[in-house]
Amino acid sequence: MQVSAAVVTHKEQPLVLKRLELDEPRQGEVRVRMVASGVCHTDAIVRDQWYPTPLPAVLGHEGSGIVDAVGPGVTSVEPGDHVVLSFATCGTCKSCLSGHPSYCVNFFELDFGGSRTDGSKAFTDEDGQPVSSHFFGQSSFSTYSNVAERSIVKVSKDAPLELLGPLGCGIQTGAGAVLNVLKPEAGSSVVIFGTGAVGLSGLLAAVASSASIIIAVDIVDSRLEFAKTLGATHTINSKNEDAPARIKEITGGGVDYALDTTGNKFVFAQMLNSMGILGHAALVGAAALGTEASVDIGTLLMSGLTLSMVIEGDSVPQAFIPKLISLYNDGKFPFDKLIKRYDFANINQAFADSESGITLKPVVIFEQP
């Protein structure tokens, strides 16, 4: 069938809207009519080829939409179901079977490889040339896409699909790192480094956990002010203040839990130097491959620090995304405050506004038939 898709044709260049041919859903695939898709930092760094998904490619990995058709063997959804799309996994490796699918041993191939496992691609251009598909199992920057069943999360038909796409990656990443990995107790202290969409999702999760001290750290005053409206009890502009020293002053010796969403090696070191005894720190920021950070191992050893490297919030999307929707419905996780909507035709503006910081979480909306 003919679809309209935003295609990355060349490294570090704007996406190009093109008419492509989408093949029929195959074994274990679901054809989804997209209602919306979040624009994520990971889309930008793959566009710029930090990670080598073959170009040309249809990216997008925070889709939401309605099931249009199902391929052979699909049992979890049927046409007409409303769905949110998340990352792809094999379902058979040790990590998947133990409830940690974001550490699937086949994650890179399935989510960044640009094709099905047999090498075939779902899209072809007007010249009959293949275009990379199945980005995170979904390639949601297309009006329709063939999605891996394991990327599918069925949601209620009264859920707001135009908002829900970012739950599939960015918001799941920040919130999951806090709720699934750090698990702060009521009354504990939490610091969030970086107040973009991922960091503020972690902050909202800390609020939902009833942490008593929630510190937001950034270098943009307007974002820090916004963090206060979401529940931050303290803010630090680390360009103007010594963040670790200020955090230790606020907490009386060091923070219980910390989340770095920046992927910046200097921020990472700041986080580790902010921890209290037996603190737990987590890193989720996607940095360039080869990034190295220097820390004093001897000092950290004496703290009993736990450090977790977290992918996709260590979530099982089919369980965690409905949990976030439930929290949202109860008024305890207002992630909609992070979102700004764009027409699909303006997807490059959405990328630009995200990169400049004008918009925290862009969501492109597809024109409905």
UniProtKB/TrEMBL annotation:
<feature type="domain" description="Enoyl reductase (ER)">
    <location>
        <begin position="11"/>
        <end position="365"/>
    </location>
</feature>
<dbReference type="GO" id="GO:0008270">
    <property type="term" value="F:zinc ion binding"/>
</dbReference>
<dbReference type="InterPro" id="IPR020843">
    <property type="entry name" value="ER"/>
</dbReference>
<keyword id="KW-0862">Zinc</keyword>
<dbReference type="GO" id="GO:0046294">
    <property type="term" value="P:formaldehyde catabolic process"/>
</dbReference>
<comment type="similarity">
    <text>Belongs to the zinc-containing alcohol dehydrogenase family.</text>
</comment>
<dbReference type="InterPro" id="IPR011032">
    <property type="entry name" value="GroES-like_sf"/>
</dbReference>
<dbReference type="InterPro" id="IPR013149">
    <property type="entry name" value="ADH-like_C"/>
</dbReference>
<dbReference type="InterPro" id="IPR036291">
    <property type="entry name" value="NAD(P)-bd_dom_sf"/>
</dbReference>
<dbReference type="Pfam" id="PF00107">
    <property type="entry name" value="ADH_zinc_N"/>
</dbReference>
<dbReference type="GO" id="GO:0018456">
    <property type="term" value="F:aryl-alcohol dehydrogenase (NAD+) activity"/>
</dbReference>
<dbReference type="InterPro" id="IPR002328">
    <property type="entry name" value="ADH_Zn_CS"/>
</dbReference>
<protein>
    <submittedName>
        <fullName>Aryl-alcohol dehydrogenase</fullName>
        <ecNumber>1.1.1.90</ecNumber>
    </submittedName>
</protein>
<dbReference type="GO" id="GO:0005829">
    <property type="term" value="C:cytosol"/>
</dbReference>
<keyword id="KW-0520">NAD</keyword>
<keyword id="KW-0560">Oxidoreductase</keyword>
<dbReference type="Pfam" id="PF08240">
    <property type="entry name" value="ADH_N"/>
</dbReference>
<dbReference type="InterPro" id="IPR013154">
    <property type="entry name" value="ADH-like_N"/>
</dbReference>
<keyword id="KW-0479">Metal-binding</keyword>
<dbReference type="GO" id="GO:0051903">
    <property type="term" value="F:S-(hydroxymethyl)glutathione dehydrogenase [NAD(P)+] activity"/>
</dbReference>
